[in-house]
Design brief:
The structure is a single chain. The protein has 264 residues and is of the alpha/beta class. It has a domain of 181 residues: TIM Barrel (Alpha-Beta Barrel), CATH 3.20.20.70. Strand 8, helix 10 and strand 9 form a beta-alpha-beta unit. It is globular, with a radius of gyration of 17 Å. About 3% of the residues have low confidence.
Length: 264
């Protein structure tokens, strides 16, 4: 069984949603990025999305975009991220890891080569933000050959017929996007989002996780009652990027993750 499936199975047995944390790999540098991911796991994250820095992250808001720019300037790349993933997956064998990327980076590395490599470093799935559903076969085939979950995204305005089609072939979990637009903390229309999640769960054969815009434990607690997993990214990265000493920021970010984990 893929480790993502194991995590959701464990969380279901514990009567809670999974906490999924997006981390900007290489921000502010590879060493401190690794420390931040370790702190997130130790504070209660069940699944880590390893966000590869990219020069044109069109789905990301200013916080993650700026983190990507810093990471790229400081030499972050896919090879270093894979090496970091190998260390983290060895240190935290109960945690699932998802590679979060844009297709340009994956094409550059080679899709078959990448999918052959990911199980070796303990990565369990791929979330390719800009991969159209109609063109997923070229990545889905080598992913399946290597036991990897190719995780789809659904927007709030995806028609139900298309949502059903996408969910039918999903693996790992379905990423339900809360808002129209890019990542970033904001006020969410929680009743409408929860109703949307309820509808998705009626026909999705895999767990449904929800993300984009989750800014605090209060919002996460509401969403955790409606979804199988809650995804938080910008709010975590923003704490790490605050002015001042990084270790102090890391402590605050760890406390934030802990507050989220307690309300799952």
């Amino acid at each position: 069984m893929n480790k993502i499936d194991q995590v959701f199975q464990r969380c279901r047995a514990e009567g809670r949603a999974a906490l999924i944390i997006f981390c900007s790999c290489g921000f502010p540098d590879m060493a401190r990025s690794e420390a931040a991911i370790a702190r997130a796991i130790e504070s209660g994250a069940d699944i880590i999305e390893l966000g590869l820095p990219f020069s044109d992250p069109m789905a990301d808001g200013p916080v993650i975009r700026q983190a990507s720019e810093v990471a790229l300037r400081n030499g972050a790349n896919l090879e270093k991220t894979l090496a970091m993933a190998a260390r983290l997956s060895t240190a935290y064998p109960q945690t699932a890891f998802v590679l979060f990327s844009y297709m340009n980076l994956l094409y550059n590395y080679g899709l078959q080569r990448l999918c052959d490599k990911l199980p070796e470093v303990g990565i369990d799935g791929i979330l390719a933000v800009d991969l159209p559903f109609e063109e997923k076969a070229e990545l889905e085939l080598p992913a399946k050959q290597n036991g990897l979950c190719l995780i789809p995204l659904l927007s709030p305005v995806t028609p139900e017929a298309r949502s059903r089609q996408i969910c039918a072939g999903a693996a790992g979990f379905v990423y339900s996007v809360n808002v129209l637009g890019v990542t970033g903390v904001r006020e969410l229309r929680l009743p409408q989002i929860c109703e949307h999640l309820h509808n998705l769960k009626q026909y999705s054969p895999v767990p449904v996780a929800t993300g984009f815009g989750v800014k605090d434990a209060q919002a996460a607690a509401v969403l955790a009652k409606a979804a199988d997993g809650v995804i938080v990214g910008s709010a975590f990265v923003r704490l790490l990027a605050a002015e001042g000493d990084f270790n102090d920021n890391l402590d605050r970010a760890g406390e934030f993750i802990r507050s989220l984990a307690e309300c799952m």
